[in-house]
Amino acid sequence: RVTMRAGAGGETPVLSDLRIALRDPDPAVPAVQVANATAFESDSGSVPLLLTVTLSSPAAAGVTVDYQTVEASATAGIDYTPTSGTLTFATGSSSRTVTVNVLGDSDEEDAEFFFLRLSNPQGAVIADASGTATIVDDDLRAGPVAGTEVTYTLDEDFDRGRSFNVHHDVPLGDQ
User: Fold this and answer.
1) Which residues pair with 98 in a beta bridge?
2) Could you please report the per-residue DSSP string of the chain?
3) Do residues 69 and 101 make contact, with C-beta atoms less than 8 angstroms apart?
């Protein structure tokens, strides 16, 4: 409920009372969400990145939700093929998959990401409208030459070759 009252002498009305009532969602209406996903790019062509969209409970009646890819650090048309459409959940189903093609290249680059956004649900409510799609580079950065001694001290040193379970820690962001 919103109550507005005019100020004295025709002044701009001021808000004097604002009440917002939050209600728990209807448990009979399923909630839809999209999970995060990761794919390794190739040197050429494309590889599928699968994003799973789920309902909190199987659809009692048909459920639809629109989806669309949204750029972030990954660029549509260069790093992935943009896509949009409508998912339909048949009665009794609770999971659908959106496939986005990750475009290959031979560039050495950091991991990139884009989003899959859900909107306009029919027969459901949105619990999580955005899933993060991460593209991991498959191109091996040049590491040290066999037989040479290398001291790893800076982030740039650790970024050569393949590293697993290496974290850039705060406060200095070093290894």
Assistant:
1) 51
2) -EEEEPPGGGPPPEEEEE-----PPPTTSPEEEE--EEEE--SSSEEEEEEEEEESS--SS-EEEEEEEEESSSPBTTTB---EEEEEEPTT--EEEEEEEEEP-------EEEEEEEEEEESSEEEE-EEEEEEE--PPPP-PPTT------SHHHHTSS--SS---BTTTTB-
3) no
Model pTM? 0.66
What is each CA distance from 45 to 49, 70, 101, in whole angstroms?
Answer: 13, 21, 9
The Cα 128–Cα 36 span in angstroms is 11
The 10s digit of each residue's pLDDT in 33-85 is 999 999 998 888 899 999 999 999 998 888 999 999 999 999 999 999 999 99
Strand order across the 130-136 sheet: 37-40, 130-136, 112-122, 63-71, 84-89
Q: Are 63 and 89 in contact (CB under 8 A)?
A: yes
Whether the Cβ atoms of residue 31 and residue 126 lie closer than 8 Å to each other: yes
Answer yes or no: are the C-beta atoms of 161 and 67 closer than 8 Å: no
